[in-house]
Amino acid sequence: MLLPPHLSTFLLLALPSAVRAVFQDEVGHIDYHYELLGVPQRETTFFHRPRRDEKASLLYTLSDVGVLGAVHPSSGAVLWRHLLNGTLTDGGGFLRAGEGENWVAGALGKSVHAWDAVSGRNKFWVDFSGEVRDLEIMEMTENGGRKDVLALFDEEDGSSTVLRRLSGDDGSVVWEFKETTKDIPLQVSTNVEKVFVISLHGNAAAYNLKVTVLDTLSGKRLDELVIGTKGDVHSKEDVMFVGANSAAPIVAWTDNSLQKLRVNVLGLKTRQEFSLPAGAVSVEIHAPHLVQSLPHFLVHIKTASGNSADVYHVDLKTGGITKAYDLPVQRGTGAFSTSSDNANVYFTRITNEEIVLLSSTSNAAIGCWPLKEGELRSAAIYGVSEVVKKTGSGESFAVRSAVVTDTDDWVLVRKNGEIAWSRPEGMTGAVAAAFAEIPENEDLVKTLEQEAHSNILAAYIHRVNRHINDLKYLPAYLNSIPSRLTSSILGTEVSFKDGKLARDSFGFHKLVILATRRGMFYGLDVGNKGKVLWSNRAFDIAKGDKWNVTGIHIDESAGETTVLGSNKDHVVFKTETGKIVDAKAPEAQVSTRSAALVNTLSGQVLLAVGLDGEISSPPADWTPGQTVVTRGLGGELKGVTFVAADGAKLSPLVTWTFPVPQGQKTVSIATRPAHDSVASIGRVLGDRSVKYKYLNPNALVLAAVDDAALTLTVYLLDTVTGQILYSSKYEGVDAGKPIECAMSENWFMCSFFGQYGVRDDPDQIVKGYQIAVSDMYESDQPNERGPLDDSDSYSPLDPLDVPGAGGASTLPSVVSQTYVLGAPISALQVTQTRQGISARQLLAYLPDMHGIVGLPRMLLEPRRPVGRDVTPAEMEEGLIKYHPVIEIDPKSVLSHERDVLGVEKIITSPAVVESTSLLFAYGVDVFGTRVAPSFLFDILGKGFNKVTLIGTVLALSAGVFALGPMVRRKQIDTRWNAPM
Amino acid sequence: MRLLSTILGVCAALLATTTTAFSSSASSHNSQETQKGQGQVVSLITLRIPASNAIPNPYVLSPSTHATLSTFGQPRKTAWLSTANTFVLRDLPPGSYLVEFCCVTHAFAPLRLDVDSTGGVKVWETYRGHDWGNKGEAVKLSTEGVYDVRVLGTKGYFMERAKFNFFSILRNPMVLLGVVSMGIFLGMPYLVDNMDPEMRAEWEERQKTNPMNGIMGAATGQAGAPNPVGNFDMAAFLAGSSKKEDSGPATITEQGEQSGGGGGGGSRKNKKGKGQVTSTY
Predict the structure, then answer these.
(1) How far is it, in rounded angstroms, from Cα A105 to Cα A112?
(2) Superfamily assignment of B2-154 in CATH?
(3) Stretch B202-214: mean pLDDT
(4) Which residue among A556, A686, A977, B190 is least packed, with the fewest CB closer than 10 Å?
């Protein structure tokens, strides 16, 4: 019997009262959040005035991770943003804005969309079957004010090119031009009366440029031109630039040896050649995008040592291109950007020393502002600028440039050479992260070691001297006492004046090492609101490539961090400073699938695992003592142990293989976390009997789906023997939606999207996101420990038929329950506390609600009684009646109102205090907080009002002091006035 | 103004397409349909957040508000909140969809949206964890051609911190008990003093037989309590002095002090120090 709906909602609201929420005053104190966009791409970033009649402009970008957003140029605050595809993308996409329009149009993958420029609300979103190759806005249209969108598609696997004109109001197709051809669609461009579709025609050996001229009104083909490239163009990347929307759009390419620049004015058959300076490494073209702007463009030439630029003018009548002037060579790469103000075109040159503003008509600088010393830490690669001509007092200009630096920061440089803001956009697209303890003061460790090794007297004298020497810190310490006292009373932050990192007694001060796919790594101070302490580039990763990190290992004793990549690359750096100690650049070939952190005789070591799950023989002192589980090419699991093959040399040997059954494919594997303390080996039931937990450190959960049968099978494997300890099958599971598992202590869980009939009544269909939770116990019966009892050791390799030793009898007794979840979850993780006394919480990212939720383990308990009320004994145990739904209560959202975008993974680490677990989430955004699953029972939180406490004590003391004399007087009076 | 124009636009689009829709199938009541493989794909369904008591102005909702459409075997679809406070769902193949709304500030009722093979669209409210067939109230297509979404309420992310409040301390039952008993303790002797002499004698007489006067006895200094409890001197006991040491005038004053106003009342009545001594023994 199902509950009536209104009652169930009521129950739901009543249920999560045990959930711990975040207090308003803890926001920003225990948590930190970097609201990021991703590194802006050169072509999809611009300043735009969202309101025609207002001067204020905003900065728009479609980043390399697929986030479209608007940023306030003066503060650097994000106004709105959208992760377009729901997941991180690898660059690409288009973003355009019509001059004076209050919307921006974007395209990514198969969809074209438009957004309100101020509010960030969607204007329209249309999906098509082909991939978008280019997007332009038609500045001039026949129907009055409306500006339309031109979208170029590559459809039917490259066999046809489609250009669609979409209405700027609702995205409906105005006209469509389709051409069935093998040509590669490149770009679309328009001038006032014509639309040009540029495609590559021919074969890969030598493409020619084909320009199809279309009518703006009907989309009918007017003309077709083929421009010979003399074999210079081999792929679409070779065509550098197709000037869009300027009065005379151009297409430009260079020859293979970068000696000649060839330019064609669209609509003409001729091309013009210009020679490039010797030693050019790369060439970029910058041109205005406005129709009313002068048809001028700038060629930015980079050489190995410096950069220079040439400015060209196009004659609108003849189509002739002439070189107007050139700019001198300067050191470094430099960055150029174009801005236009009606007809005027300005070029801004940003170097490490200065910002120079030039007009396109003359090479005399309009303005030159030196950058303040050390303001720009790293070199600008590219940027966008906004130039405002100040009316009134003569020729005065204001310029601001948003530049991307080579350390993946996005920086806004103001006219006076100051940095207005700097956004660490490089932290998006993080691929790996790990918590690290703050390295202890090495000097002290060294002196202590030295003392231990010298004789007693010398050591004593040394120590006394050291202590006398330490006295010099005493005045500073005494000085700091009042400020520390007041900050402690008022609850303000204690600032570390000397800037030195130090551990704190609560264990909240830790570092997070974050490695991104762009080859950068960062050190964040978790205790200090996630402040970026240092960042460094490990490798220069080519555009489109990724740094594939397989493992991070932090060597606490050496204070060094090792990051292992998939292409036989590694980097070793100092944990505290990020200084690279050793690095090896990635090779072209991917050779490593993953890396295993194993315990060896010489401590923990990262062991590279090959593509087929093979491990090459490590050095003798790096040989792991335990079984390493790897995955083969066919998806099978292998258990690799190290055995002495010949003499002392240990070599890897596959001891077991677990092939996933035919038709199934592995979707998720979960193991218990490396730090998974268990405080109690049993659970005390209401009747004082004990159910003993099945705590197998070698257990592993593998989830495999069958696409045809629509089933999910969860296997529990023993990693020493490869034996299946338990398996369960869920029917009606959607294999196309994310399936994820997590494991901790004696339980594991898997989340999936399911649709199936209930077993008792197949007519009742359950549909939605679900989570299946399983508990493992040593036996079905309480107070029973199974055949192993409390023996100190056992081997799963023992024969099955030996009574009381290993085998089938040691299989866990599993209790399972499935719940329907109020929202899909991903990036599952479990809180970790120091001793494991605190209850656990399942941490997960809510991809829809953009938050991180902490689901208490109590709520996910598989032993919740079904279909009846809880007995008093069960209530004592903390069980609540089973209800099929677990709604996501906003109070259990750890990231509360914050909009945490695109989290890929969550990591946790125990603090020193038992109650608290540290959380760090990365992906697009970076978010961290402290979680106390069983409330803060061992430290005073912010709710402990020290002011009130001290006030009460003071009031009481005042009362005592005031009443004391009164009482004494009364006593004396009583004695003297004693009636006799 | 913009809302109006957009609605008009939507209406126009619907009007333009209803003829084709009705010619192809009688059951479909909105939208334009195109034939794609088996089943008809519904090209446009609009869900709207209307202005309501919970959301007087839907334009202030966060731009990150979106609707997700999930069903078995198909990739999820996302529709962002538009400038007209609508979620526009395009090109839906036949199927039974779960529509959920994600908003930072508000919670919305999830919907079940069915597209049948002829392109007909039906929308109901749905309840999680219940039979999929157990539909809630059907959501009707409004005259503007949109389905309205029901808001459940605002989301509260934060816990309220208990504030320091003097009156909340006073409201504590333990404190209230203490205050009341203190009031009796201090006020009783005055009441007794102000009593009519006859009534008082009567009251004292009654007190002697009252078992409770063991306690009151110490306070009022009653002499010659008949029961053993009456002999117990609470004040002396609390002062930590044993009975044997309790002799002489020092004890008298001590008692006078300890029993507070009550002791005072008693001593005034007896006018003799000895009266108090007897009250002790």
Answers:
(1) 7
(2) Immunoglobulins (2.60.40.10)
(3) 72
(4) A977
